[in-house]
Write a sequence for this structure.
C-alpha cells in the first residue's frame, strides 16, 4: 500500500474530511500531518486567541486519530520543505489537503502544489470549507458579486444538499512505514499566555466533539426562534459555531445539511435566517478571493481619501479594554477579552463606535479582533469591519451611525448584558445603565471608578463623522 500525506490546516476534523476521504478511497495509507508555519501567512499570522484554540483543537484531533489507530505528526517549519522531507522519509506518493482562501496562503499553496508535482508527487487540494468555490458563482456579466442579496439568491438556486462523509471507526496505522516519532505539539506551537485564556473554555470546547456538541445544542435549543433571538445580546440565541467552522472542526456542508434536516418543527424564517448567516460567511470568502487586497485596504476606493482621525493611543486602549464610558461598548470589549468571543450584534456596535464616533480606521479594530477572537477568520473579520465602516462589499452606508444607547435599549432591554460584563453598573437603575452620564450623581455613588463621560459626545461624534463623509463626497 502506498502512502499519502494528509496535510491538515484549518480543517481539524475527521468527519466529512475530503483529503482524508480521498486518501482512503484511492488506497493510500494516510499519514496525518500538521505544520505550524505562521510566518507564511503574510501580515496576518495567527493571533494569541487563535493559537490558544489551535493547541486544544490539535490535541483533540490527535486523540481522535489515536483512538482510531493512527496518529498526528505536528511539525514546525517551512511547509514546502517539511512536506518534501516527510514524503522522502515515508515514501509517500501524494500530498492531499483542503483549500484555504487567504491571499498569502492561496499564493503559497499554488507554489507548493507546483513544486510537489515537479518533484513527481501527486499533489491535490479539495474544497472542505465552503458551500461553493469562489470561482463557481458569478454575475450574468461574469463578474464577482459585490452585493450579498443577489449573491445569496444565486447560491440558493444552485445549491443542493450534498452527500457528507462519516469518518471511519478505524484508520490504518502509519507505523507500518517509517514516520518520525520524536515530534510533539509542544515543540511546534507556542505555549498559551498563562491564565489569559481560562475564560474561553468556560464557554467553548475546542475540537471536533465540541463542534458536534455546539451544533446539537443549537438545533435543540436555539434554532427555533433564531430570527428574533439572534440579536439579543444577553441571550444564547446564536449558534456559537463560528470558531468551530473557522478551524474546520465541523464542515459547513454538515452544518447546512443539519439545519435543512431539522424538520417541520422549525419555522422557515428561522431556518432561512441561519442559512443566510452561513451565506454571509460564504460571501466574505468569495469577496476576499476576488479582491485579495481587502484585508489591507478599503474595497471602496473612495475611502482612500477619507479624513480618518489620528488614532490616539489612550483612546484606542480605552476602547480595547472596555473603558469608553459607553456601557454596551464596554460590555462587548470585556466579553471579548474574557471569553475570546463577542455577540455579533455587539460586534457591530463596538465597531461603529470606533470607526464612526471616534473615526478611527477600521484596521485598528480588525487587528485587535484578530489577536483576541477565537473565531478570528480573515475573510469574516475583514468583511465585518469593512461592512460597519462603510468601506466594503454591500456595506452599511457610512452615514449610518449606530447610536449605542438606542442599540442597548433595543437589544439589551433589561440591561442584563451590561450588568454581566460591566458589573460596577449593575446597581444602577435601568435607564442609567444605558447612559450613566445622564445621571452623574448615581454614577458617582454606585460606580466611582467608571468613566464620568463617553470618550466623545454621541451627537458630536456622529456629526463629525457625517461632515467627514460629506467632505469626501465633495472632493470626488
Amino acid at each position: 500500500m502506498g502512502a499519502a500525506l494528509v496535510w491538515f490546516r484549518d480543517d481539524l476534523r475527521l468527519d466529512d474530511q475530503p483529503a482524508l476521504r480521498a486518501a482512503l478511497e484511492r488506497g493510500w495509507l494516510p499519514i496525518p500531518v500538521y505544520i505550524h508555519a505562521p510566518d507564511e501567512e503574510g501580515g496576518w499570522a495567527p493571533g494569541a486567541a487563535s493559537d490558544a484554540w489551535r493547541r486544544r483543537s490539535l490535541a483533540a484531533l490527535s486523540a481522535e486519530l489515536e483512538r482510531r489507530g493512527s496518529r498526528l505528526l505536528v511539525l514546525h517549519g517551512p511547509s514546502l520543505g517539511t512536506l518534501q522531507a516527510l514524503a522522502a522519509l515515508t515514501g509517500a506518493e501524494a500530498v492531499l489537503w483542503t483549500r484555504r482562501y487567504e491571499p498569502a496562503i492561496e499564493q503559497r499553496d499554488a507554489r507548493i502544489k507546483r513544486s510537489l508535482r515537479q518533484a513527481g508527487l501527486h499533489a491535490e487540494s479539495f474544497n472542505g470549507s465552503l458551500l461553493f468555490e469562489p470561482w463557481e458563482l458569478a454575475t450574468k456579466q461574469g463578474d464577482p458579486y459585490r452585493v450579498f442579496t443577489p449573491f445569496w439568491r444565486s447560491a440558493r438556486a444552485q445549491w443542493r444538499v450534498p452527500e457528507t462523509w462519516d469518518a471511519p471507526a478505524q484508520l490504518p496505522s502509519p507505523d507500518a512505514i517509517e514516520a518520525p516519532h520524536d515530534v510533539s505539539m509542544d515543540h511546534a506551537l507556542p505555549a498559551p499566555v498563562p491564565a489569559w485564556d481560562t475564560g474561553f473554555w468556560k464557554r467553548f470546547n475546542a475540537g471536533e466533539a465540541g463542534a458536534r456538541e455546539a451544533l446539537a445544542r443549537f438545533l435543540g435549543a436555539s434554532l427555533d426562534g433564531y430570527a428574533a433571538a439572534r440579536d439579543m445580546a444577553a441571550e444564547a440565541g446564536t449558534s456559537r459555531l463560528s470558531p468551530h467552522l473557522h478551524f474546520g472542526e465541523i464542515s459547513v456542508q454538515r452544518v447546512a445539511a443539519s439545519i435543512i434536516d431539522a424538520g417541520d418543527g422549525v419555522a422557515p424564517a428561522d431556518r432561512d435566517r441561519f442559512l443566510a448567516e452561513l451565506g454571509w460567511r460564504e460571501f466574505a470568502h468569495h469577496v476576499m478571493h476576488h479582491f485579495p487586497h481587502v484585508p489591507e485596504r478599503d474595497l471602496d476606493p473612495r475611502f482612500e481619501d477619507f479624513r480618518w482621525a489620528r488614532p490616539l493611543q489612550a483612546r484606542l486602549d480605552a476602547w480595547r479594554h472596555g473603558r469608553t464610558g459607553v456601557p454596551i461598548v464596554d460590555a462587548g470589549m470585556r466579553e471579548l477579552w474574557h471569553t475570546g468571543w463577542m455577540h455579533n450584534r455587539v460586534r457591530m456596535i463596538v465597531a461603529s463606535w470606533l470607526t464612526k464616533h471616534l473615526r478611527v480606521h477600521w484596521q485598528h479594530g480588525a487587528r485587535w479582533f484578530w489577536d483576541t477572537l477565537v473565531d478570528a477568520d480573515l475573510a469574516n473579520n475583514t468583511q465585518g469591519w469593512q461592512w460597519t465602516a462603510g468601506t466594503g462589499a454591500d456595506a452599511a452606508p457610512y452615514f449610518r451611525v449606530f447610536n449605542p444607547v438606542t442599540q442597548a435599549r433595543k437589544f439589551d432591554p433589561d440591561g442584563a448584558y451590561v450588568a454581566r460584563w460591566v458589573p460596577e453598573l449593575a446597581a444602577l437603575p435601568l435607564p442609567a445603565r444605558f447612559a450613566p452620564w445622564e445621571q452623574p450623581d448615581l454614577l458617582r455613588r454606585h460606580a466611582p471608578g467608571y468613566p464620568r463621560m463617553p470618550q466623545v459626545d454621541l451627537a458630536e461624534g456622529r456629526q463629525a463623522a457625517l461632515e467627514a463623509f460629506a467632505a469626501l463626497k465633495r472632493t470626488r
In short: The chain has a mean pLDDT of 93.
